Amino acid sequence: MQKPTIQDVARRAGVGVGTVSRVLNNHAAVRDTTRQTVLGVIRDLDYTPNPHARRIAGGKSYTISVLLPVVTTEFYVRLLNGLEAAFQEARYDVAIFPLLDRARLERYLGSHTLAYQADGLVMATYNLTGMFSENRLRDQPTVLVDAYAEGVDCARMDNHLGGVLAGQFAAQQPGFIYAIWVETELDQMFTSRVFEERRSGFLQSLAAAGRALVGESLSSFDAQAARTAAGQLLDHAQFPATVFASADLLAGGLLDEAAARGLVLGRDLKVLGFDDQPWAQARGLSTLHQPVEAMAYEAATLLLSRLSGYSGPPRVRTFEPRLVLRASTGDM
Amino acid sequence: MQKPTIQDVARRAGVGVGTVSRVLNNHAAVRDTTRQTVLGVIRDLDYTPNPHARRIAGGKSYTISVLLPVVTTEFYVRLLNGLEAAFQEARYDVAIFPLLDRARLERYLGSHTLAYQADGLVMATYNLTGMFSENRLRDQPTVLVDAYAEGVDCARMDNHLGGVLAGQFAAQQPGFIYAIWVETELDQMFTSRVFEERRSGFLQSLAAAGRALVGESLSSFDAQAARTAAGQLLDHAQFPATVFASADLLAGGLLDEAAARGLVLGRDLKVLGFDDQPWAQARGLSTLHQPVEAMAYEAATLLLSRLSGYSGPPRVRTFEPRLVLRASTGDM
DNA sequence: TTGTACGCGTTATCAA
DNA sequence: TTGATAACGCGTACAA
Predict the structure, then answer these.
(1) Does A77 touch chain B (CB under 8 A)?
(2) In sequence order, what DSSP letters do the residues of A285-318 get, joined into one string?
(3) Facing residue for B52 by CB, picked from A52, A71, A104
(4) Do B159-291+322-329 and B6-58 have the same topology in CATH?
(5) Which residues contact B105 (CB under 8 A, 6 or more apart)?
(6) CATH class of A6-58
(7) Pair B117, A52: CB distance under 8 Å
(8) Record: contact A117-B51, CB cut-off 8 A
(9) Do A49 and A21 touch, CB atoms closer than 8 A?
């Protein structure tokens, strides 16, 4: 049994291949009864169009490439879900290219095939537009998600605003204000500005409120390091203290360390995270919720509009984090 | 400037398209001077064959799909490197499909396009062969890596042997023997038998040596949980103790906890991990080294042989972990 | 050893 | 509203 082709469908439905193609691509001007017949045959034969042939014939291949750093952090899983939801509605398939490290990025860029051949490109977090030739960007509609660059469509999170919201909250609390920051990575190309933005927003609104940041600690993006950093901070902290951790992962280590020291949340210590990871609610962590799925969905929508012919100027969509207060700050 | 086609190359080289195609696919029977001319033009034009057209024409698309659970653990990064090294040598491109969860697996299986259209399929860790129709497996040569199933080529790690080696080592140590195991996942389909195998090997060789396992602890595959589990174990442990952690991640938590308690490695406590993660050497962790890249490379080689026409019975390649002794067991 | 012509599965154009 | 047919870029049989 070979895979059925458009020819098989046409023959079985008693129509020409042109008609089947029109049905497939929702071209109007097909009598409704014929459309139903064709769709019936397609279902019977379990026919699916060959994307390679589509591409060859000058049409779309209905595949999108997604370039992202990694896929196992909560953030990227949610991002992927948002993207795939949107693309699936539009009957596009998604191919994922985890870059992981510089070597893999170069391997990808050197590859003239694969992602190059997709109808469109989504780049997450990293702005790699500079590494692409102009031709490539023109031939292949591109959208940035969780990143910003001039000249291309972008859907981004307002991390600065998130920092501001955190700072405004902290400024209202009595006692001493501390922060734990994510250590920025060394590799230029792979540096995301996310954490700097959160930091600058936080410091700005603290300054605006005339409050001082009494102490800060640095941690790499890792659970064990977070616990250690939390310990160092608490060793020298004065209470009552309010601590802003620029990622839930860091806040988690702080919660553990605080529990080990018998500190009472909401009284001795208020902890505010950033991300609203799935476990944040269960552990009662106050944090900034990010509409990641919505951002990803919008990114996909921007790309899809380009694919259906839109050619206006680049659009930028900004999404805003939302402060969620729970037990770790004594709320609720 | 359009992408150059085989026609452009042929015209510029003053030959027919057939000749260019022959050069491209290493078909013999091309005069060496002509081959050089053609290759020169290909380089000049920066020509790369269109994989979609290749596929349509009945040839290969030179793409391989890789299905794997996640990609950010050390293990899968190494696996990917091994696979890509081999496939790149053979001029194949690799498309990665991180499954992540059941929903995404079903989405993949439902997709009649994409990976379905690749020349071959690599499935890592999970044996999903049961979920594929016979047709699909026949049309698309498949190899399992880090997993085993009947009827398909496999490249796997002998985790049982690794457990045995760990057990033999532990049995030679004076004092009390403990172990920390990885909690197995609940989802049947996504269950890997790796950790059970390590456990059974360990218990078997302990029994063979007439030594008893004094206590054991369970931890999920997570740094924080590991630290907690380590604490619980040490709370009730008798010394000197030898502890086998069935993953380096768990051993890491144990090292931290031991340091916090002032235990002297090699005297009070000997720690043996499993994986030989990059940091294991720096931290002096004795562990079992797995030839992951070699296994992945071999898996790719098995698949490539199928792609070049081999159609013998399924082959199974087994790779053996190797005991590496460092400071955490008082060696070196 | 090489060139020509056909077919792969689809889309798009053109008549009907 | 439809069917026939010319592309699309490439592999390959066949003829030269």
Answers:
(1) yes
(2) -BEEE--HHHHHHHHHHHHHHHHTT---S--EEE
(3) A52
(4) no
(5) B99, B128, B131, B189
(6) mainly alpha
(7) yes
(8) yes
(9) no
Grade residue B115 by pLDDT with cuts at 50, 70 and 90: low
Q: Where are the alpha helices (DSSP H) in chain B?
A: 6-13, 17-24, 32-45, 51-56, 74-89, 102-110, 134-139, 159-171, 194-208, 223-235, 248-260, 278-282, 292-307
β-strand pairing of B142-145 with B213-219:
unpaired
In this complex, the nucleotide whose C1' atom is nearest to the CA atom of residue A19 is: D2
The CA distance from A263 to A233, in Å, is: 13
* Percentage of chain A exceeding pLDDT 70: 90
Looking at domain A63-156+292-319, its CATH superfamily turns out to be Response regulator (3.40.50.2300)
Q: Is the distance from CB of A249 to CB of A226 less than 8 angstroms?
A: yes
**CB-based contact B227 A227, cutoff 8 Å:** yes
pLDDT, tens digit, for every residue of B20-79?
888 888 876 788 888 888 888 888 888 888 888 888 887 788 888 888 887 667 788 889
> Is the CB of B252 less than 8 angstroms away from the CB of A224?
yes
Quick one: tokens of A269? 């210590």
B329 band by pLDDT with thresholds 50, 70 and 90: very high
Nearest-neighbour CA in chain A from B10: distance (Å):
19
Q: How far is C-alpha B310 from the geometric centre of its chain's CA atoms?
A: 23
Using CA atoms, how far residue B288 sits from A98, A117, B149, B203, B206, in Å, is 28, 42, 24, 16, 17
- And the tokens for A196? 């700097």
Separation between Cα atoms, residue B292 and residue B298, nearest integer Å: 10
* Residue of B69, B93, B289 lying closest to B191 (CA atoms): B69
Task: Give the DSSP letter of residue A117.
Answer: G
Q: Does residue B112 sit at the A interface (CB-CB below 8 Å)?
A: yes
CA distances from B267 to A213, A309, B239, B282 (A): 45, 71, 9, 20
Q: What value does the mean pLDDT take over residues B123-147? A: 78
**Which nucleotide comes closest to B56 if you measure CA to C1'?**
C8
Q: Which CATH number fits domain B159-291+322-329: 3.40.50.2300, 3.40.309.10, 3.10.490.10, 1.20.1530.20?
A: 3.40.50.2300
Q: What is the rounded distance in angstroms from the CA atom of residue B274 to the CA atom of residue B288?
A: 5
Flag residues 24-43 of A with CB < 7 Å from strand D: 28-31, 33-35
Q: Decide: A187 and A223 in contact? Cβ < 8 Å.
A: no
The string of pLDDT tens digits covering residues A204-224 is 999 999 999 999 999 988 777
Q: Is the dihedral of CA A258, A260, A264, A265 positive or negative?
A: positive
